Amino acid sequence: MSTAPVSEPTRAKRLPREKRRLQLLECALQVFVAKGFHAASMDDIAEAAAVSKPVLYQHFPGKHELFLDLLDTHLGQLQHELTTVLAEEETNKGRVSGTITAFYEFIARKDEAYRLIFSSGMDNDDDVTERLERFHDDMAGAIAEVIADDTGQPMAEATMLGHGLLGMATAAARHWSMLSERPDLETSAQLTARLAWRGISGFPKESESW
């Protein structure tokens, strides 16, 4: 009487190093979003990626470094989207609308990568703080250049306006994400953009008193 051959245990598919690294980052993002930084473990990430911990450590020396890699990746993506808007839009009104819409779209992404920035429990981490401050300074500076060029405002004052626009976009989009009943993304972004534009467009091209 013949017997059916016994199948061998399924092995994890070998991936080229860079593809494996990207897969690990994707799985780590899911774990950090679900648990936050402190509750997440390298065991959780290895399990989510279906790899052994030694494989995970071949790519990342520790959980902190893995988190910072993710943060750099997603801040870089957001910065690219914002700078593209500033470069491609032909009017300041379009730049304001596009900048704010980019924040809403980032927060609305299905991967919820925005939680790395706003709700990971890493607010007091020096490395995270340094990255976020650099991101905001770079973007506020880019916006300030546009404002100063258009209005003649000194760069120091234009930079304050740039930070104000970023703060408004971030706060409004975060609030929108937490609403149980909320307007659609486009409507919400345009409401915020309208408020911001009415403020920024009030600055004249030449200095004058209020």
TrEMBL record:
InterPro entries: DNA-bd_HTH_TetR-type_CS, Homeodomain-like_sf, HTH-type_TetR-like_transc_reg, HTH_TetR, Tet_transcr_reg_TetR-rel_C_sf. Keywords: DNA-binding, Transcription, Transcription regulation. GO terms for biological process: negative regulation of DNA-templated transcription. PANTHER family: HTH-TYPE TRANSCRIPTIONAL REGULATOR RUTR, TRANSCRIPTIONAL REGULATORY PROTEIN (PROBABLY ASNC-FAMILY)-RELATED. GO terms for molecular function: DNA-binding transcription factor activity; transcription cis-regulatory region binding. Pfam families: TetR_N (PF00440). Residues 41-60 bind DNA. Residues 18-78 form the HTH tetR-type domain. SUPFAM superfamilies: Homeodomain-like, Tetracyclin repressor-like, C-terminal domain. It comes from Nesterenkonia natronophila. This is TetR/AcrR family transcriptional regulator. It comes from the Bacteria.
